[in-house]
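Handoff note, outgoing to incoming analyst
You'll be picking up this chain. Sequence as last confirmed:
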Amino acid sequence: MTSSDTDTQIVHNFPPFFQVLQNGAVKRFFDDKLIPPTNDTPNSHGVITRDVVVSAQPKVSARLFLPEISDPTRKLPVLIYIHGGAFSIGSGFSEFYTSYVSSVVANSNVIGVSVDYRLAPENPLPACYDDSWEVFKWVALHGSGQTGSGQTESGLGSDPWLTNHADFTRVFLEGDSAGANIAHDIAIRVGSGQEGVGVKISGMVLVHPYFGSDEVTPMMKVLYPGISRFDDPRYNPAANPCLMGKIKCGKVLVCVAEKDGLKDRGVKYYEGLKKSDYEGEAEFVETRGEAHVFHLFNQTSEKAGELMKIIVSFLNK
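Most recent structure output, in case you need it:
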């Protein structure tokens, strides 16, 4: 066997997500089709998109979504969306997620910010958490600032869409699967008073959230080398009800699907939230007869439409 053959031996194999080879290369089973932003041209949803670099080192980017503006004086809510994919696949720039976020933005009339975080295992966790936090802080910067006397004034950010059109009294988080896990982490950071944030979270939508299991899986050990126990507060927040009480947002919507293998963790999260010291409103919805993230794989299906209406209603209440 040559050294080249040795280099390409599979060290870790986790279908349908990725393989890790002996030479450190990562091969993904899912090929994301990335699409460019539309810039000044509306897409099929009537939404225009534009990409921004939030951090140069490490590079963290986001895709912004602006719905049709009929009244320039009206400020719109902001929705920060965090994609799923087991922390290891997916992109905020993919055709898959661009289509979904565009639909949410068009239906709910919000400004969308879709996070494009670094993927594991090349960038082990907590990189994706930190990248998403940087995007949240970047958005928040547009809605908060301090004068010399400590009084709040107009925001310090410079993005024109956020500066001209965003209502920073209505900031929402949404994520699916691993993205829901990351959204929860952001809400915990805000509730813990971490520096750099001057806005509050109005609500959070967790769709088919991934919140671990009763053991740390081999795949998670590769993605998150620092994890050591099943009740790690990021991996399994329901095992830490005292921390769940630190979530600071007005309301939380937990969505699960009947045939999703992750359903029980979503249920436990909702139940844990209700039992904790969380002071906001908690809502729960289950879609019968459907599997994990069905609404993404078949975005025009009847039940995907029903779930969309529930999410839009939550954002617009």
